[in-house]
Amino acid sequence: MLELDTVTAGYDRRTPVFRGASLTVAPGESVGLLGPSGCGKSTLARVAALLHRPDAGRLALDGTEVRAWRHRAPRELRTAVGVVFQQPRTAADPRLTLADLLVEPLRATGRRAEALDRLAELAPAVGLTPDLLGRRPHEVSDGQLQRACLGRALALRPRWLVCDEMTAMLDASTTAALVAAVEAYRAETGAGLLAVGHDRVLLRRWCDRTVEWKDCLPA
Ligand SMILES: Nc1ncnc2c1ncn2[C@@H]1O[C@H](COP(=O)(O)OP(=O)(O)OP(=O)(O)O)[C@@H](O)[C@H]1O
């Protein structure tokens, strides 16, 4: 279970972006979170991905309460969640080839020896052909780079995936390919998904259920 319980978060403690937001994703479930621009969906997604410390409230992953965020979080909790953002250009190190990008989490967690084998699985899973793997971010399209960012999010086989507007910049066919890659991964591993966005049609088609932002807040 991924449980966000009465979370208050923002960028200035005196004026949080939202107060008391709650949302639960069951194991293996896919939940779409819909809401107007600027309401705080990305901020909540970053809390769920252990990237942003909330001002108050509770996050629990599979029954373990998260008490530290970002690099302070224990590795087993940090690696339980894979995250994909809207903007691949700001999320990818421009110096790395796509191959290095895909397996960056393995190197970062001291599992370098597994990198080649995992690369051979990840690249086809996200639709990256061998000719693209040696290129750097400025030599590929946004869609190709986003495929690499999705592969990187899957590299450590997370139990939870957070996709924050993952396909907002992409065309219909790349969107369909990325959603299919996420769903293939979930079918194989049973991972749960929190997909944040404002494309109601896409999220309703993609997810088991969709939640409106206002329904996450106290009445
Ligand atoms: N790093 C930051 N520092 C200060 N304020 C921020 C920061 N990131 C976001 N904000 C502000 O927090 C509020 C919520 O932003 P957030 O990105 O969570 O909203 P959102 O619902 O995801 O919006 P969108 O759908 O447009 O992406 C906005 O007013 C935004 O300007």
Automatic annotation (TrEMBL):
Keywords: ATP-binding, Nucleotide-binding, Transport
InterPro entries tied to this protein: AAA+_ATPase, ABC_transp_ATP-bind, ABC_transporter-like_ATP-bd, P-loop_NTPase
Annotated Gene3D superfamilies: P-loop containing nucleotide triphosphate hydrolases
A GO MF term: ATP binding
Tagged with keyword ATP-binding: yes
Transmembrane helix in keyword set: no
Domain of life, per lineage: Bacteria
GO BP terms, alphabetized: transmembrane transport
Domain (ABC transporter): residue spans on this chain: 2-218
Family: Belongs to the ABC transporter superfamily.
Protein name per UniProt: ABC transporter ATP-binding protein
Organism of this sequence: Streptomyces venezuelae (strain ATCC 10712 / CBS 650.69 / DSM 40230 / JCM 4526 / NBRC 13096 / PD 04745)
